[in-house]
Amino acid sequence: MSKYIDLTKILTQLPDFVFDYIEVAYDGESVNTQIGYSIDIKIFLEYLKQYKFKTIGGIEEFTPQMLGEVTLRDLNGFKAYLQEYESEYTTVSGRRVKRIRRNNEYGINRKLSGIRGLFLYLYKNDYIDHNITDKLDFKKLHQKMKRPLTTQDVLNLIHVLYDGEDYFEGRSRASYLNRKQRDIALFTAYLGTGCRVSELVNLNINDVDFESSSFIVTRKGGDQQEIFMPLQVENEMLKYVEERLADENTKDNDPLFISRNGKRILPQTVEKNLKGYCRMAGITDPDKMHPHALRRTFACNMIADGVDIKMVAELMGHKNIEVTHRYYTQYAIQKRKQVMRNFDITGQQKEQEE
């Protein structure tokens, strides 16, 4: 409830058209998302008040027509301003505090994205006659390629999943034993199908069909897709479903993966448990300890096995094949490294092969 209070407090400081934009554009999004974009727009309006519209009393006095006067130069100035700026806020005790804030490329682009969304909303609803943000260039991101799990990483992780009794002690061991078959089924399904964590945790028992060796997931955008299970995944899923149905109170339409209190397991719990298993398996790279690393590993393994990239995109639920190309790039980097590491500059290896 406090989050809604925070959002309402921020929106009351903003013009009515911003309130309408947040309500329409981010309907269904989390309160944290709505708060984030509301704050970004507030920062933008405060910048305009300070450097362009100096005569207005407060940012709540802004009108859509005033935003229609914003130029590309104003936007580029705001982009530069975001790198380092001073903000002022009131503490719980009522004291005014000034603070220097900085943004990296990701933070700047997120704020610009919220501003672009606002201008697009105003343009589509005929509040302004042009959308100047179409001409705005975002910051170029120097993205570090996140690595998939190696074959040895996967083997180590699977060993911990199946033989956790050898790794956990005391209460941790008891907790592991209570969730053992659930986690084996969940994480082998993750590694063996490449589904998103949200797709797996939203499964119900009757979504799994052992006659067709498949289960039905709801993809991003609401489309449903039949996911076929590798034999190992099917075997572990069958054991887990039988374990669930052994409880006479369990119904076919109940959540498949449940927590210890009998409720549908949350993505945060999946991530927490995976990190515990990774630590036991000697996997310390933060990128590899996130659930998405298992999905990334599935894609890279498919590509390494020679599966057509269009098929990989379909299996991953990617509507845009360019997203899948990121995984191909990942595989290509590993392949280039392997070729170069094995290259003999003297040519002796080639002569021996001939």
**Mean pLDDT across residues:** 88
Number of strands: 5
> Can you identify the CATH superfamily of the largest domain?
Intergrase catalytic core
CATH architecture of the largest domain: Orthogonal Bundle
Roughly what fraction of the amino acids lie in strands? 5-15%
Outline the low-pLDDT stretches.
Answer: none
Q: Which strands sit side by side, in order, in the main sheet? A: 3-4-5
Helix content: 40-55%
Beginning-to-end CA distance, first to last residue: 74 Å
SSE series:
HHHHHEEHHHHEEEHHHHHH
What is the CATH topology classification name of the largest domain? hpI Integrase, Chain A
Domain module count: 2
Approximate shape: globular
What would CATH call the class of the largest domain? Mainly Alpha
- Count of DSSP H/I helices: 15
Radius of gyration: 26 Å
Written description of the protein model:
With 354 residues, the chain is mainly α. It folds into two domains: 2-135, Tyrosine recombinase, N-terminal domain (DNA polymerase, domain 1, Orthogonal Bundle), CATH 1.10.150.130; 151-341, Intergrase catalytic core (hpI Integrase, Chain A, Orthogonal Bundle), CATH 1.10.443.10. The chain is built from 15 helices and five strands. It has helices at 2-11, 16-25, 31-51, 64-67, 72-81, 105-124, 151-162, 170-193, 197-201, 231-245, 267-280, 291-304, 309-316, 321-341, 348-353, and strands at 84-90, 96-102, 208-209, 214-218, 224-228. The strands form two sheets. The protein has a three-stranded antiparallel sheet, with no helix packed on it. It has a two-stranded antiparallel sheet with strand order 1-2. Helix 8 (170-193) packs parallel to helix 12. It is globular.
